[in-house]
Write a structure and sequence with these properties.
alpha/beta; FAD/NAD(P)-binding domain; 7-stranded mixed sheet; 9 helices; about 30% helix; about 30% strand; globular; FAD/NAD-bd_sf; FAD-binding protein
Length: about 400
């Protein structure tokens, strides 16, 4: 490889997933500093097209890339009874990765000093002043970037030690049916009518895009991913026997896995090197939701840089993480029934408050009020046990993280 002289940059964002693109968007939007985004070149290291969903209550700067939204959400209990809620002022929104890429790349090109670099990042190192990013360009030559600060969204080689670790893993189909089968106004957030695994829980997920088009997914919370054949079988059963979709065409699949863990994710790994996204703890431990926290984190970083500071705020408060650790352990041990737990939350808690709780933005008082709507004895037993459980390392899972929801 032929090395090239080091290039000087102000802010470097490593990675073109949800976290990297969102931070670049917020930084260029705020005009905080010139931004260079380093993304993998076309090839096996570049992730496939993905879908990210989140709920929001107003204008958030992503309007031009929201491809669909829903004002009604539905959950089907394991007993088949549905509960439909209207979480106004929230709407549930879908963003496709290609649309977000197109918008952010365009804004980088139009911003003063903005740049998109296609390269494979080999190392990110903190220096006495600033940081250094060593890359390999598509032609094989090496390039070193020197920056005042680096925000790194790459997946960690292994998750930090944790007491509990589950995976939210899924496969979805974008389907087109021969006749109108979907209500475009209602998103099925969790459908527990699917067969449940021996350990963990499973549910269907339906986002209608038109009366004859939808994203249909099969999702599990469990300790290990399953084979593509098993996902396909579960999806076929869900579409055919539960949803009764009849003849359909699969236009595009998507598949991924998200860590659900009470591990502690350091957000600063050097004087000028910061981790963002799942690598920086933006994935909600008990639900796997990530995209909304990424937006909060990105806006906060842009604001602190604009004020002359350099920090990455915690995506979730300590109380929220403590409650998540309890819930995650209770799900993993089977002390609570997952389908009943989530279904009852939607039946008993006002929808707007529940969505804020799932995103980690409720007040302490609201958290405790919601906590009283859960199975109190199993949760108290779990809370009493947690301080005595050791944190341990877990085997790596190929493909983590897939930043979604």
């Amino acid at each position: 490889m032929t090395p090239r002289d080091a290039e000087a940059h102000d802010t470097v964002v490593v990675g073109g997933g949800a976290a990297g693109l969102s931070l670049a968007h917020r930084l260029t939007e705020a005009g905080a500093s010139p931004v260079t985004v380093v993304e993998p070149p076309d090839g096996p290291l570049r992730p496939a097209e993905r879908t990210w969903c989140y709920w929001e209550s107003g204008v958030d700067g992503l309007e031009e890339v929201v491809s669909a939204s829903w004002s009604k959400l539905r959950v089907h209990g394991a007993d088949g009874r549905p509960v439909t809620v209207e979480p106004a002022p929230f709407t549930y929104r879908m963003v496709r990765s290609t649309d977000l890429e197109r918008m952010v790349h365009g804004r980088l090109a139009r911003s003063d000093g903005g740049r998109l670099l296609r390269a494979t990042v080999e190392t990110v190192c903190a220096l006495r002043k600033g940081a250094e990013v060593r890359c390999t360009l598509p032609g094989g030559s090496s390039l070193t970037l020197r920056a005042r600060r680096v925000f790194d969204s790459r997946p960690l080689p292994a998750l930090p030690p944790a007491r509990t670790r589950l995976l939210q893993h899924f496969r979805g189909w974008f389907v087109r049916t021969d006749t109108d089968r979907f209500d475009p106004a209602v998103a099925d957030l969790m459908d527990f009518r699917v067969p449940q695994p021996a350990h963990g829980l499973a549910f269907g997920y339906v986002l209608p895009l038109a009366p004859d088009r939808a994203l249909v997914e099969y999702t599990e919370f469990s300790g290990a991913v399953v084979s593509t054949k098993a996902y396909e079988s579960a999806l076929g059963h869900y579409c055919r026997d539960i949803l009764g979709l009849g003849a359909l065409t699969v236009e595009q699949p998507e598949q991924g896995a998200i860590p659900m863990t009470d591990a502690r994710f350091p957000r600063r790994v050097g004087a000028a090197v910061f981790r963002i996204g799942t690598a920086g703890g933006a994935t909600r431990p008990a639900t796997g939701y990530t995209f909304a926290a990424v937006q909060r984190q990105s806006r906060a970083i842009a604001a602190t840089l604009g004020d002359g500071h350099e920090t990455v705020p915690a995506p979730y408060g300590r109380r929220a993480l403590a409650m998540d650790a309890i819930l995650l352990r209770a799900l993993d041990t089977g002390r609570i029934n997952g389908p009943d737990f989530f279904t009852n939350l939607f039946r008993r808690v006002p929808a707007e408050r529940l969505l804020r709780f799932l995103d980690g933005t409720t007040s302490s008082r609201e958290k405790w009020r919601i906590g009283l709507r859960t199975p109190v004895r199993p949760m108290l037993c779990t809370a009493a046990e947690l301080p005595f459980l050791p944190r341990r390392s877990w085997p790596a899972v190929p493909g983590l993280p897939y930043e979604s929801e």
